[in-house]
Predict the 3D structure of the following.
Amino acid sequence: MNDYDSVIFARPDIMVDRATHFCPGCGHGIIQRLVGEALQELDLHERAICIGSIGCTVTAYEYYKVDGMEAPHGRAPAVATAIKRCRPDLVPFAIQGDGDLASIGTAEIVHAAARGEKITIIFANNATYGMTGGQLAPTTLMGMYTSSTPGGRNAEQSGFPIRMSEMLATLDGPAYIARVSVHNPANVRKAGKAIELAFRTQLAGLGFAMVEVLSMCPINWKVEPVQAPDWMIANMIPQFPLGEFKVMPGVAALRKGDKS
Protein backbone atom coordinates (compact mmCIF):
# COMPACT_ATOMS: atom_id res chain seq x y z
CA MET A 1 0.00 0.00 0.00
CA ASN A 2 1.34 3.43 -0.87
CA ASP A 3 0.42 6.78 0.65
CA TYR A 4 -2.22 7.36 -1.99
CA ASP A 5 -4.15 4.28 -0.84
CA SER A 6 -4.46 5.47 2.76
CA VAL A 7 -7.82 6.89 3.82
CA ILE A 8 -7.18 10.00 5.93
CA PHE A 9 -10.61 11.62 5.70
CA ALA A 10 -13.90 9.74 5.84
CA ARG A 11 -17.50 10.20 6.82
CA PRO A 12 -18.03 9.92 10.59
CA ASP A 13 -19.70 6.62 11.48
CA ILE A 14 -22.48 8.50 13.22
CA MET A 15 -23.58 10.04 9.88
CA VAL A 16 -25.83 8.27 7.39
CA ASP A 17 -24.25 7.37 4.04
CA ARG A 18 -26.36 9.58 1.77
CA ALA A 19 -26.06 12.69 -0.36
CA THR A 20 -27.36 15.94 1.03
CA HIS A 21 -30.39 17.74 -0.40
CA PHE A 22 -28.72 21.16 -0.33
CA CYS A 23 -28.07 23.33 -3.38
CA PRO A 24 -24.56 23.54 -4.94
CA GLY A 25 -22.34 25.84 -2.90
CA CYS A 26 -24.65 25.91 0.14
CA GLY A 27 -22.87 25.92 3.49
CA HIS A 28 -25.49 23.85 5.30
CA GLY A 29 -23.90 20.56 4.27
CA ILE A 30 -20.63 21.64 5.84
CA ILE A 31 -22.44 22.60 9.03
CA GLN A 32 -24.15 19.22 9.27
CA ARG A 33 -20.83 17.48 8.69
CA LEU A 34 -19.22 19.48 11.52
CA VAL A 35 -22.08 18.58 13.85
CA GLY A 36 -21.59 14.93 12.92
CA GLU A 37 -17.87 15.14 13.68
CA ALA A 38 -18.62 16.63 17.11
CA LEU A 39 -21.18 13.92 17.89
CA GLN A 40 -18.66 11.27 16.86
CA GLU A 41 -15.80 12.80 18.84
CA LEU A 42 -17.93 12.96 21.99
CA ASP A 43 -19.41 9.46 21.47
CA LEU A 44 -23.00 10.67 21.59
CA HIS A 45 -24.46 7.86 19.47
CA GLU A 46 -26.86 6.75 22.20
CA ARG A 47 -27.54 10.11 23.86
CA ALA A 48 -27.94 12.74 21.16
CA ILE A 49 -31.41 13.81 20.04
CA CYS A 50 -31.56 15.80 16.78
CA ILE A 51 -34.50 18.19 16.57
CA GLY A 52 -35.43 19.31 13.08
CA SER A 53 -37.24 22.59 12.60
CA ILE A 54 -38.77 24.20 9.54
CA GLY A 55 -36.47 25.53 6.80
CA CYS A 56 -33.52 24.13 4.88
CA THR A 57 -32.46 22.23 8.01
CA VAL A 58 -35.86 20.56 8.52
CA THR A 59 -34.60 17.05 7.76
CA ALA A 60 -31.38 17.31 9.76
CA TYR A 61 -32.29 14.18 11.74
CA GLU A 62 -32.12 12.11 8.53
CA TYR A 63 -28.35 12.60 8.34
CA TYR A 64 -27.38 11.19 11.75
CA LYS A 65 -27.65 7.73 13.28
CA VAL A 66 -29.25 9.17 16.40
CA ASP A 67 -32.82 9.59 17.55
CA GLY A 68 -34.59 12.61 16.12
CA MET A 69 -37.88 14.40 15.94
CA GLU A 70 -39.43 17.39 14.21
CA ALA A 71 -40.55 20.58 15.95
CA PRO A 72 -43.17 23.09 14.83
CA HIS A 73 -41.76 26.13 13.05
CA GLY A 74 -39.40 28.00 15.40
CA ARG A 75 -40.13 25.80 18.41
CA ALA A 76 -37.00 23.64 18.42
CA PRO A 77 -35.58 25.28 21.59
CA ALA A 78 -38.85 24.58 23.42
CA VAL A 79 -38.82 20.95 22.31
CA ALA A 80 -35.16 20.61 23.26
CA THR A 81 -35.96 22.12 26.66
CA ALA A 82 -38.70 19.56 27.27
CA ILE A 83 -36.42 16.67 26.34
CA LYS A 84 -33.57 17.89 28.53
CA ARG A 85 -35.79 18.51 31.55
CA CYS A 86 -37.48 15.13 31.26
CA ARG A 87 -34.29 13.22 30.43
CA PRO A 88 -31.23 15.14 31.70
CA ASP A 89 -28.99 12.29 30.52
CA LEU A 90 -29.83 13.00 26.87
CA VAL A 91 -28.15 15.60 24.66
CA PRO A 92 -30.76 17.46 22.58
CA PHE A 93 -29.59 19.77 19.82
CA ALA A 94 -31.14 21.67 16.93
CA ILE A 95 -29.86 23.17 13.70
CA GLN A 96 -32.00 26.22 12.92
CA GLY A 97 -32.03 28.74 10.09
CA ASP A 98 -32.37 32.51 10.47
CA GLY A 99 -36.07 32.63 9.62
CA ASP A 100 -36.82 29.75 11.96
CA LEU A 101 -34.72 30.97 14.90
CA ALA A 102 -34.75 34.75 14.55
CA SER A 103 -38.28 35.34 13.24
CA ILE A 104 -41.08 32.97 14.18
CA GLY A 105 -38.90 31.37 16.86
CA THR A 106 -37.58 34.56 18.48
CA ALA A 107 -39.49 34.05 21.73
CA GLU A 108 -38.36 30.44 22.06
CA ILE A 109 -34.66 31.14 21.56
CA VAL A 110 -34.63 34.25 23.77
CA HIS A 111 -36.38 32.62 26.71
CA ALA A 112 -34.46 29.33 26.43
CA ALA A 113 -31.26 31.38 26.58
CA ALA A 114 -32.56 33.54 29.44
CA ARG A 115 -33.42 30.44 31.46
CA GLY A 116 -30.00 28.95 30.77
CA GLU A 117 -31.48 25.76 29.38
CA LYS A 118 -28.79 23.09 29.00
CA ILE A 119 -29.27 22.58 25.28
CA THR A 120 -27.17 23.11 22.15
CA ILE A 121 -28.34 25.25 19.23
CA ILE A 122 -26.56 25.55 15.89
CA PHE A 123 -27.82 28.68 14.13
CA ALA A 124 -27.26 28.64 10.34
CA ASN A 125 -27.37 32.26 9.16
CA ASN A 126 -27.43 32.89 5.41
CA ALA A 127 -29.40 36.16 5.59
CA THR A 128 -32.32 34.83 3.57
CA TYR A 129 -35.31 32.50 3.66
CA GLY A 130 -33.53 29.85 1.64
CA MET A 131 -36.21 27.17 1.38
CA THR A 132 -39.25 29.29 0.54
CA GLY A 133 -37.92 31.49 -2.23
CA GLY A 134 -35.42 33.95 -0.80
CA GLN A 135 -37.67 36.37 1.06
CA LEU A 136 -36.49 38.96 3.59
CA ALA A 137 -35.13 37.41 6.78
CA PRO A 138 -34.41 39.07 10.16
CA THR A 139 -30.73 38.86 9.23
CA THR A 140 -31.03 40.18 5.64
CA LEU A 141 -28.40 42.85 5.02
CA MET A 142 -29.21 46.50 4.43
CA GLY A 143 -29.79 47.16 0.74
CA MET A 144 -29.93 43.43 -0.01
CA TYR A 145 -32.38 42.43 -2.73
CA THR A 146 -34.80 39.63 -1.89
CA SER A 147 -38.01 38.34 -3.44
CA SER A 148 -39.99 40.38 -0.88
CA THR A 149 -37.71 43.45 -1.00
CA PRO A 150 -37.11 43.88 -4.74
CA GLY A 151 -35.81 47.40 -4.13
CA GLY A 152 -33.40 46.26 -1.44
CA ARG A 153 -33.84 46.23 2.32
CA ASN A 154 -34.35 49.67 3.83
CA ALA A 155 -34.59 50.58 7.50
CA GLU A 156 -37.82 52.56 7.31
CA GLN A 157 -39.77 49.67 5.84
CA SER A 158 -38.02 46.60 7.27
CA GLY A 159 -35.83 47.74 10.15
CA PHE A 160 -32.24 46.63 10.61
CA PRO A 161 -30.61 43.17 10.61
CA ILE A 162 -30.72 41.44 13.99
CA ARG A 163 -27.42 40.28 15.45
CA MET A 164 -28.69 37.31 17.42
CA SER A 165 -25.36 36.32 19.00
CA GLU A 166 -24.74 39.80 20.37
CA MET A 167 -28.31 40.10 21.62
CA LEU A 168 -28.38 36.73 23.39
CA ALA A 169 -24.94 37.34 24.90
CA THR A 170 -26.41 40.20 26.97
CA LEU A 171 -28.54 37.69 28.91
CA ASP A 172 -27.38 36.00 32.08
CA GLY A 173 -28.42 32.47 31.10
CA PRO A 174 -26.12 31.59 28.19
CA ALA A 175 -22.82 29.89 28.93
CA TYR A 176 -21.36 29.95 25.43
CA ILE A 177 -22.25 32.13 22.42
CA ALA A 178 -20.06 32.30 19.31
CA ARG A 179 -20.26 33.24 15.65
CA VAL A 180 -18.20 31.35 13.09
CA SER A 181 -18.21 30.84 9.32
CA VAL A 182 -17.65 28.08 6.78
CA HIS A 183 -16.40 30.14 3.84
CA ASN A 184 -12.87 28.67 3.76
CA PRO A 185 -10.94 25.73 5.28
CA ALA A 186 -9.42 27.71 8.15
CA ASN A 187 -12.81 28.95 9.26
CA VAL A 188 -14.39 25.53 8.81
CA ARG A 189 -11.86 24.20 11.34
CA LYS A 190 -12.68 27.03 13.75
CA ALA A 191 -16.39 26.35 13.30
CA GLY A 192 -15.88 22.68 14.10
CA LYS A 193 -14.08 23.54 17.34
CA ALA A 194 -16.83 25.96 18.37
CA ILE A 195 -19.58 23.43 17.68
CA GLU A 196 -17.76 20.75 19.69
CA LEU A 197 -17.28 23.23 22.55
CA ALA A 198 -21.01 23.99 22.51
CA PHE A 199 -21.75 20.28 22.99
CA ARG A 200 -19.11 20.01 25.71
CA THR A 201 -20.81 22.95 27.46
CA GLN A 202 -24.07 21.01 27.57
CA LEU A 203 -22.35 17.82 28.72
CA ALA A 204 -20.73 19.75 31.58
CA GLY A 205 -24.12 21.14 32.61
CA LEU A 206 -22.95 24.74 32.36
CA GLY A 207 -25.95 26.20 30.57
CA PHE A 208 -27.27 27.31 27.20
CA ALA A 209 -24.89 27.18 24.22
CA MET A 210 -25.40 28.54 20.71
CA VAL A 211 -23.04 28.68 17.76
CA GLU A 212 -24.11 30.96 14.91
CA VAL A 213 -22.61 29.80 11.62
CA LEU A 214 -22.53 32.14 8.63
CA SER A 215 -23.49 29.97 5.67
CA MET A 216 -23.37 30.53 1.91
CA CYS A 217 -26.60 30.63 -0.14
CA PRO A 218 -25.55 31.18 -3.77
CA ILE A 219 -29.06 30.66 -5.17
CA ASN A 220 -30.67 33.47 -3.21
CA TRP A 221 -27.58 35.68 -3.13
CA LYS A 222 -27.68 35.49 -6.95
CA VAL A 223 -24.02 34.54 -7.27
CA GLU A 224 -22.19 31.49 -8.59
CA PRO A 225 -21.18 28.92 -5.94
CA VAL A 226 -17.48 29.71 -6.38
CA GLN A 227 -18.22 33.41 -5.78
CA ALA A 228 -20.25 32.88 -2.59
CA PRO A 229 -17.27 32.79 -0.16
CA ASP A 230 -15.99 36.12 -1.47
CA TRP A 231 -19.52 37.57 -1.25
CA MET A 232 -19.65 36.46 2.37
CA ILE A 233 -16.30 38.12 3.15
CA ALA A 234 -17.35 41.37 1.50
CA ASN A 235 -20.93 41.54 2.80
CA MET A 236 -21.85 39.11 5.59
CA ILE A 237 -18.83 39.24 7.88
CA PRO A 238 -18.76 43.07 8.17
CA GLN A 239 -22.40 42.96 9.34
CA PHE A 240 -21.94 39.84 11.47
CA PRO A 241 -18.36 39.85 12.83
CA LEU A 242 -16.89 36.52 13.83
CA GLY A 243 -15.86 35.72 17.38
CA GLU A 244 -16.94 34.51 20.80
CA PHE A 245 -19.48 36.77 22.48
CA LYS A 246 -19.92 34.96 25.77
CA VAL A 247 -17.72 32.37 27.46
CA MET A 248 -18.77 31.71 31.04
CA PRO A 249 -16.25 30.53 33.64
CA GLY A 250 -15.63 26.84 33.17
CA VAL A 251 -16.35 26.76 29.45
CA ALA A 252 -12.84 27.76 28.36
CA ALA A 253 -11.38 24.79 30.24
CA LEU A 254 -13.54 22.47 28.13
CA ARG A 255 -11.68 23.28 24.93
CA LYS A 256 -10.14 20.20 23.40
CA GLY A 257 -6.50 19.97 24.36
CA ASP A 258 -6.79 22.48 27.24
CA LYS A 259 -4.66 21.08 30.08
CA SER A 260 -5.62 23.74 32.65
Observations:
- Residues 185-203 form the longest helix (19 residues).
- Residues 23-146+158-247 form a domain with the Rossmann fold fold (CATH 3.40.50.970).
- The longest strand covers residues 174-181.
